[in-house]
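Hey, resending since the last one bounced:
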Amino acid sequence: MQHIFRLILVFSLVVAAKADLNIGTVEVKGDTQTIPVTISANNPELQNLALTAFGAHGRYQVKTGGAYTINFTAAGGNQVTVAITKGSGGAAVHRETVSGTSLRNALLRAADVAVKHTSGGLRGFFAEKLAFVSDRSGQQAILTGDLFFGEVQSHPVQGKQIMGPRWAPDGSKILFTSYRTGFPDIYVLDLRTHQLNIFASFKGTNSGARYSPDGSRVAMVLSGEGNPEVYVGNPQGRQVKRLTNNQSVEASPAWSPDGGRLVFTSDAAGGPQLYVMPVGGGTMSRLNTNISKYCAEPDWSVADPKKIVFTAGVGRGFQSAVYDFSSGAAKIITKAPMDATEPVWLGDGRHFLCTYRNATSKAIYLIDSESGKATRISPSSLGNAWSANCLAQ
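The structure tokens again:
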């Protein structure tokens, strides 16, 4: 039952240090393969956004006289031209004019083009869309915007204990859990019609809903039959099929990139741990992370199917960790001075977002899973921000 595991996290905040969340960028040694780049633009707004984006990317080091020079030029309307040169001689590498939904969006898309042509194979993630929860208005609400909290929009979703907003793959809807009526139910927000509807409101708890990668199914946790179990239904919340059947508590299902398996949390071993099972049914098998007695909130990387990011109990708090199927081992990634929870992958398979939280504050950070570099991306003007989810563009 997802809310049970979340309550454990909330209780931990009572003893967490009341540290200031605005710790900026944390550099952690470990990745010596950074690429020095020089960033320029013909527009101050584009310049600042490009510097912010590449400054947060763990693969790059922004400096004067970099190995690559990346120049962005507003090309009129919602277009930006990116020109990449290499070395002191300025040898041309790539030039392209990129269109976007706005000039800001075009810059982020152009920056993703630059990553593709300079990183040695990484996919860009700067132009991804963001959904998150904020209490800026004095009560919890779902907001959307770009990855660097530009063009933020508030939606007609306000209530108590809003958790886990998750994009539909086509960007048309967002699923989330809320205690709007005093009980945990699953809601769906249609971003085209701005309508809010009940998705699942069975007896007991309804939580953790996530669309499959192709949008044809939804995984969720329901306790209407007595125990919190993993179910899968259609995109309308019907034709619901029960997958797990035991006396343990299940929570937070996440899809494999091919849509064939689910990873989720279960306390079948006596405490929250990660398990995988086929979507068609069968035996659930435990992932032996061997790093914590508390492993929860998993997210499966689309770009790198061998990796799952999750929340792990560390000491009296929580940090974000990554399990690698290749090695069969897990590693704690974050070194936050408070809890680092709710991790979700970005589209390159290297970076993820998570919530830094203590007893009084919450903020969203971008984490490089290879170097541990952590950069706060949610501005204080939005108040507390948490439960981020990204949509690739």
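The chain is about 10% helix and 45% strand.

Sorry for the duplicate.
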